[in-house]
């Protein structure tokens, strides 16, 4: 199926989907498509007012929950609200993220990109996984990036970049962490649970995510955007396929099928050798549990 589109999404009626960062960009397009196919969608967003505005634009059975991925207390509060509202979940889509931000930290002292993109979603998923682990057809979909291949490693000796900071390396670390998390979660879910863990990346998509790029890079990006980038709606297709295609297998990774995986229709794509390093996956998992205080019941 080389040209998979939203027209290929099966009926989602009766399914409950939580999408992080869903008030704009890729998350908004993901939530819109799921709601259009009958899903009950929860927009998990930092700015509740913007979330409500997005929900109104989407229409359908869409609600909002406040989620601040830069605060473990905020993450726990959001998870508790969702657990009180629903007896199960069918989809958890870890979409929210930041890219190449100036050096900053979360409320808990984590480097902002690692703390938001990986640790925040790790904690959020850990607090909700028992609500979907044994639900037939349930999926945890985490959005990574081509950036997971760029100078990427997990810097265990300085995870929070306290001895120096590189915007790109910190971003790449967080996106590699997304894949290491997905593959380790899938291995755990495969041990007797119904849910699966899948990853996706949007290629080069025209969204607000690039706003923190250095100006020289941003200028070049603006010039190349018409040639290389695709719309947010196209960029959301790998996530949507990972979330809804009946043929998806746990541990698969979806991205655009065009040149350099920068644009095109979604298909299964390879991730770096480092992302498949079992020892790295397990070490990151252990460290993530220690840092967040969240232990997965799977």
UniProtKB/TrEMBL annotation:
<keyword id="KW-0560">Oxidoreductase</keyword>
<dbReference type="InterPro" id="IPR036291">
    <property type="entry name" value="NAD(P)-bd_dom_sf"/>
</dbReference>
<dbReference type="GO" id="GO:0016491">
    <property type="term" value="F:oxidoreductase activity"/>
</dbReference>
<protein>
    <submittedName>
        <fullName>SDR family NAD(P)-dependent oxidoreductase</fullName>
    </submittedName>
</protein>
<dbReference type="InterPro" id="IPR002347">
    <property type="entry name" value="SDR_fam"/>
</dbReference>
<dbReference type="Pfam" id="PF00106">
    <property type="entry name" value="adh_short"/>
</dbReference>
